Every structure is written in structure tokens, then in C-alpha cells.
Structure to design on (731 residues):
């Protein structure tokens, strides 16, 4: 009833009062209805924005779906069928969005009598279950503090959701659907069990991380530590990167969590939810217009979005379950010692809590005694609950195990029916992977229990992902740098670009690095007049590509770790940006003022005088002064007769020699990038090492054909001054 109708009702009551034959009791009784009618009118007014709130709920659901689908696509693209959580993970932001998407199940005030209304509430519960199953592996990426806070946040959300659902089931707000089925209790049980699974896995993660880290260090020290003391060829580098790639993948806590019993059980739960959801989706087709709540038409939008989310978001947990089953799950189920082995990391955190002292928030000794007495029994109960959850998870995966066994049996029957076809397929798939490998890749698989041991197919899939990355990146090799390296025939330019007898412009010690002479020599070369533009551009592009790897060598091998050396690198970086972008060197234009008359000697003297003028820039000016003076002394009087082209060729040769000498350190950089002590950064570091190998594989092959100076030790390779001493001991 609208506002106008309310006014009309009041006017009618007042009019009745004017009649003498109307009983006063009747008139006063009608007046009592005024407040109720007014409240109904206000309720209609307040319910108008409810459809837009429904769209807000649907939008939050869409965000969650997009994040889960993005993880799904990322897993398929990278052949990671354990689908690591890259976009949809458990954190404060995701919990906030999920809380918005779960508004319908926690809404106790809105009456929802329509079929669509009730079905939307059930769809929200199913959607919550699938989201929790997708969030499970993300626990492995958190530290202990984040684990505690996120599990508490998830627990508060789930318990609030369960309590509200139970209230609605008890009051009849969630009755049976059109097919006389009430799935509320089923969803409540799954929500609580998934919360217990999350808690159990969170308790197991700290111990499992330590176990994986100890295993990683043991395998690395035994098989790979000596590689840091060698200069590996391309084939051995590939093998080393492959081994570290396998260790990083299988030693990842995310891999462990995705292949755990708990993750597989969540996949089984998702399958049961899909079956139940599909059972009432069939009937909903005929009742899509049956919505009677204040949310009105937005209930249909919420229902369709969240049902789609249930179907799409269940793919990743199901695939994780099947992938885990393919990794010796059947053997572990038959092994009676598996649970005993599992106890170590499932209950170790709780055992540690028994032994550690608890900080008490109060000072009364009697309360401390009570807590101390209750602590051990409570933790013992938690341990038993923990192992009960693990046992239930193992029981749940019996059903998909039977399914996998049946599928395997059918496939074997097909292989027997078509033997020739299968043999042909085997030959064609195995042939490209036959490489000269001296080490068994399964030696580098890290596992802390029987059930997380990948089979050969999984190890093969991991190595294939590495091969695909290398093949993809190989198409983007630095061709200009490679061409520049080919110009070099040795490393003589490292000893010739600068004479140690030339004094520095400043009394302080002159600091040198790989990048500074490269920038100085390139500045002189591109400032020479009458040089073809394509040659100058090719040199610039080659040096630009090379400086990126030079910086990587200096940072990775700690060639310049002290404060002064870092300052020199920063100065060289700023100087190169000025040369490339502004075509200047310390505010001096690179173009010759008179290209028709300036000889090579005049250009060198120009830069020598510019270095003296800019003496405040100590290292840049010193580098320019010493290099120009070295070249002038080398040519002596003949410098006035040398052509620009000849000087450009000599400078280019020096540049290529310095680049070649610096980049001989690339194999060591790749080996060092393969190993990092931080578990969370290990996968990314090995990925960077593989990408670096793919980018520079041709350069490494070129440089490995050259003989290094005999007097140069392996530890001296990252230092340019050691190269100069070795190549030119008596300048």
C-alpha cells in the first residue's frame, strides 16, 4: 500500500468519526491499523534498492569466478594440473569479496518463498563449498602468521554462515525444494568438513615445509653443489636447470598441498556437490519466474551466476584429485605404514604446542594452573580429530580410485585391441625427448610421504614444461648482441682498452666495472662522423642488449657489492640513459660539430677535454680520460692519419671483447639462479634461470669455444680488473 493510499485511509477514518451512528469502538479499532499500514508502506519504500543489492552480490560472485577460471587457464597453459593459486588465494581481500557473495545464506530478515529464492540460497552454499576447495592449496604459500590469521578469518565466515543456515532450517525459511529435497544439511556438513580440512592442512604445512627444505638441501648438496665450481657447457647447463626445475616444482609446498589426501577429498566433495546441484537445476528450468522476495529479478541473476560458478570452479579440485590419484595413490592406500609416516607432519605442530610454554594473558596463578591442566587433554583431542579427518579423507578417495582403475582397465583393453597404433604413438612421443642424460630425473623428486611421489608421467610433464619454455624463449634471443659477440675473436680488448700507467684525474682510487668502459667506448664510437647509420644503430642495439646481462653478472656474482661499487654502477646506468635518450654524455652532444673536418684524433681530444671539464663526475670522467688517452698513445703520431671507419672498427672490437669476457660468467649466473634458500622464491628463480639459458644459449655456445686466459682463476672471472691483469700483466 503506497503513501497516497495511507492518507486516503486516514481521511476515511476521520470521516467515519463525523457520523453519529458509527460505534466509537469500531472507529478506534480502525485507527490502530494506521501504524501497521504505515510500516508496510515504509517497508515497500525501503525494499526498492534490494534488486541492486542483488546485482552487487552477483558482481562479487563474478569476481570470484573470474579469479578461479584464471587459475584454471593458467594451470592448463603451463601443464600444471595441480593448478597453483595465482589469482584466487585466501587473504583479507578474497574473504571480503566472498562475504559479499554469501549475503543470501546469512540473510535472516528477508522472506524468500519462491522456488528461485530458495534455490539461490542453496546455490550460494554450493558455491561456497567449491570456493573453499579451490582455496585449499593457497595455504601452502603463506607464512605461519598469515596462516593463523587467514584460517581464523575463514573460520569466522564459515561458522557464521553455518549458524545462519541452521537457524533458517529450524524456522522453516529453508524448506524443501520442488522435488521434495532439502540439501541444507548436506551443505552444512560439507562446509564444516572443508573448514576442518583447511585447519588440518594449515597445521601440517609448517612441518612439511621444513621437511621439504631439509630434503632440498640434502639433494642439492649431494648432486648439484659441485656445479657451482665448474663452467658448464650448454648440454650440462640444460641438465642442471632441468634437475633444479624438478626439485623446485616437486619441492613446492603448493605441489605438496595439491597432491595431499585433503586436496583429493575436496575434489570428491566438489563432485558430490555438482551431482546434487544438477539434480535440482533440471527442475529450476520450469520455475525461473517464481521469485517473490524483495530481491525480485536479481535472484535469477545470482542463481545463474553462482550455479555457473559451481560448475566451472569444480574443475580444478577434480583435476587435482585425478592428478593425485595418478601418482601412486593406489599403492599408498594399500600401504598400512602411510598413516604412520603421515603422522609426522600432520600432528607435529600440535605436539610442539604440548611441549612449549603458553603465554598467559592473565596473572592469577590459579587460572594458569587450570589452563596448564586442560592444555594437554585438549591438544590430545585435537590430534585425534586431526587424524580422524585424514582418515576420512583417505576413505573418500576410494571412490575415485575405483573410477581410475576402471578407466585404466578400459585403456589397456584398447591398447591390446590396437597394438600397432599404440606402438606408433609411443615411438613418436618418446623420440623428441631422447637426450643425452646421465642422471635419472626421478632422483631430484622431493617428497615427504608416499602419496606425493610423482610417477614418471608427472616428472615427464614437468620436464616438458621446461622444454616448452626454452623453445618459446629461444625465439627471442638477443640477435644484435650475438652478432656483436661474433665480431670478437678473443678477449684481447679487455687488456687494451685502458693503460694502467695513465694517472687518474683525481687522487682517489679509480673504480672500474664492466658497464662503465662499455658505455665510454660506445659513446666515442657513435660520436665518430661519417659512419653509416645502420652500423651505429646495430652497435647501439647490441650494447643495449649486452648491458642488461652485464648488470645481471655484476649483481648475481657479487662482483660489485661494496657501497662505492654500487655507486659506480648507478652512475653508469644513469650515464647510459643519457647517451641513449638524450644523445649526450655529461651534457656534451654526441654529434660532431663539423663532421667534414674533424679527424679521429680531434674526436678523441674532444672527449678527453670534456672528461677534464667534468671532473666532478669522478668515475665517468676518469673512464673517458683514461680510455681516450690510451687510444691516443697507442696510435701515437699515426692517429692523425687513421680514418673514422678504422677507429670505429677498433672500438667495436674492444666493446665486443669486453662483452665476451663478461658474458663468460653467464653459466655461473644460471647455476646460481637455480639455487635459492627461500622456498617461496625458488620456483620463480629457477624459471628466471631457464629463461636466461634460453635467451643466451647461442652466446654461451660461441664463448665456450674460446680458451680463457690460463692465469685467470675461476673465482676471478666476474672481475674486470682481474681480466686486465691476466691479459696484460706488464702494460
Amino acid at each position: 500500500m503506497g503513501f497516497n493510499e495511507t492518507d486516503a485511509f486516514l481521511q476515511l477514518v476521520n470521516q467515519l468519526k463525523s457520523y453519529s451512528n458509527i460505534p466509537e469502538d469500531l472507529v478506534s479499532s480502525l485507527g490502530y491499523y494506521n501504524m501497521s499500514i504505515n510500516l508496510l508502506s515504509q517497508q515497500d519504500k525501503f525494499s526498492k534498492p534490494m534488486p541492486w543489492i542483488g546485482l552487487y552480490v552477483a558482481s562479487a560472485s563474478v569476481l570470484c569466478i573470474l579469479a578461479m577460471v584464471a587459475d584454471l587457464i593458467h594451470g592448463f597453459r603451463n601443464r600444471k594440473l595441480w593448478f597453483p593459486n595465482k589469482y584466487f588465494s585466501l587473504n583479507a581481500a578474497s574473504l571480503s569479496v566472498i562475504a559479499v557473495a554469501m549475503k543470501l545464506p546469512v540473510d535472516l530478515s528477508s522472506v524468500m518463498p519462491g522456488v528461485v529464492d530458495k534455490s539461490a540460497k542453496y546455490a550460494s552454499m554450493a558455491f561456497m563449498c567449491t570456493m573453499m576447495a579451490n582455496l585449499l592449496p593457497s595455504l601452502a604459500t603463506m607464512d605461519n602468521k598469515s596462516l593463523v590469521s587467514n584460517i581464523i578469518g575463514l573460520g569466522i565466515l564459515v561458522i557464521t554462515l553455518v549458524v545462519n543456515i541452521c537457524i533458517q532450517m529450524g524456522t522453516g525459511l529453508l524448506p524443501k525444494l520442488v522435488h521434495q529435497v532439502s540439501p541444507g544439511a548436506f551443505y552444512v556438513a560439507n562446509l564444516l568438513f572443508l573448514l576442518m580440512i583447511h585447519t588440518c592442512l594449515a597445521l601440517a604445512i609448517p612441518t612439511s615445509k621444513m621437511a621439504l627444505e631439509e630434503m632440498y638441501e640434502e639433494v642439492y648438496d649431494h648432486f648439484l653443489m659441485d656445479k657451482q665450481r665448474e663452467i658448464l657447457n650448454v648440454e650440462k647447463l640444460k641438465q642442471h636447470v632441468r634437475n633444479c626445475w624438478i626439485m623446485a616444482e616437486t619441492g613446492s609446498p603448493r605441489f605438496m598441498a595439491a597432491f595431499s589426501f585433503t586436496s583429493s577429498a575436496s575434489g570428491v566433495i566438489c563432485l558430490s556437490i555438482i551431482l546434487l546441484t544438477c539434480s535440482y537445476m533440471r527442475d529450476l528450468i520450469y520455475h525461473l519466474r517464481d521469485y517473490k522476495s524483495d530481491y525480485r529479478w536479481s535472484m535469477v541473476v545470482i542463481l545463474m551466476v553462482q550455479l555457473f560458478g559451481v560448475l566451472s570452479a569444480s574443475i580444478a579440485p577434480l583435476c587435482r584429485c585425478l592428478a593425485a590419484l595418478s601418482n601412486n595413490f593406489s599403492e599408498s592406500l594399500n600401504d598400512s605404514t602411510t598413516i604412520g609416516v603421515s603422522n609426522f607432519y600432520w600432528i607435529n605442530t600440535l605436539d610442539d604446542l604440548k611441549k612449549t610454554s603458553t603465554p598467559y594473558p592473565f596473572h592469577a596463578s590459579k587460572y594458569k594452573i587450570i589452563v596448564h591442566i586442560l592444555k594437554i587433554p585438549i591438544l590430545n583431542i585435537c590430534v585425534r580429530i586431526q587424524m580422524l579427518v585424514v582418515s576420512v579423507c583417505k576413505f573418500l578417495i576410494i571412490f575415485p580410485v575405483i573410477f581410475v582403475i576402471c578407466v585404466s582397465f578400459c585403456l589397456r583393453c584398447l591398447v591390446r585391441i590396437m597394438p600397432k597404433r599404440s606402438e606408433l604413438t609411443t615411438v613418436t612421443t618418446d623420440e623428441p625427448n631422447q637426450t643425452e642424460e646421465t642422471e635419472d630425473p626421478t632422483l631430484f623428486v622431493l617428497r615427504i610421504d608416499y602419496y606425493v611421489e610423482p610417477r614418471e608421467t608427472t616428472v615427464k610433464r614437468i620436464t616438458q614444461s621446461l622444454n616448452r619454455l626454452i623453445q618459446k624463449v629461444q625465439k627471442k634471443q638477443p640477435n644484435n648482441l650475438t652478432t656483436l659477440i661474433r665480431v670478437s675473436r678473443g678477449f684481447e680488448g679487455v687488456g687494451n682498452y685502458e693503460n694502467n700507467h695513465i694517472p687518474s684525474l683525481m687522487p682517489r682510487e679509480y673504480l672500474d666495472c664492466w658497464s662503465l668502459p662499455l658505455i665510454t667506448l660506445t659513446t666515442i664510437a657513435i660520436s665518430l662522423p661519417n659512419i653509416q647509420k645502420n652500423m651505429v644503430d646495430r652497435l647501439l642495439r647490441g650494447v643495449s642488449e649486452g648491458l642488461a646481462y652485464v648488470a645481471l653478472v655484476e649483481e648475481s656474482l657479487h662482483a660489485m657489492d661494496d657501497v662505492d661499487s654500487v655507486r659506480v654502477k648507478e652512475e653508469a646506468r644513469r650515464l647510459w640513459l643519457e647517451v641513449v635518450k638524450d644523445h649526450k654524455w655529461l651534457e656534451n652532444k654526441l654529434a660532431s660539430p663539423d663532421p667534414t673536418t674533424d679527424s679521429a684524433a680531434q674526436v678523441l681530444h674532444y672527449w678527453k677535454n670534456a672528461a677534464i671539464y667534468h671532473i666532478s663526475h669522478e668515475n665517468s670522467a676518469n673512464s673517458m680520460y683514461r680510455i681516450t688517452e690510451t687510444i691516443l698513445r697507442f696510435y701515437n703520431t699515426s692517429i692523425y692519419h687513421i680514418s673514422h671507419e678504422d677507429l670505429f672498427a677498433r672500438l667495436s672490437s674492444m666493446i665486443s671483447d669486453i662483452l665476451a669476457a663478461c658474458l663468460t660468467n653467464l653459466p655461473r649466473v644460471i647455476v646460481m639462479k637455480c639455487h635459492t634458500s627461500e622456498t617461496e622464491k625458488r620456483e620463480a628463480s629457477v624459471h628466471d634461470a631457464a629463461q636466461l639459458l634460453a635467451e643466451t644459449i647461442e652466446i654461451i655456445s660461441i664463448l665456450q669455444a674460446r680458451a680463457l686466459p690460463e692465469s685467470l682463476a675461476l673465482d676471478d672471472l666476474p672481475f674486470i680488473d682481474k681480466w686486465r691483469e691476466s691479459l696484460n700483466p706488464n702494460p
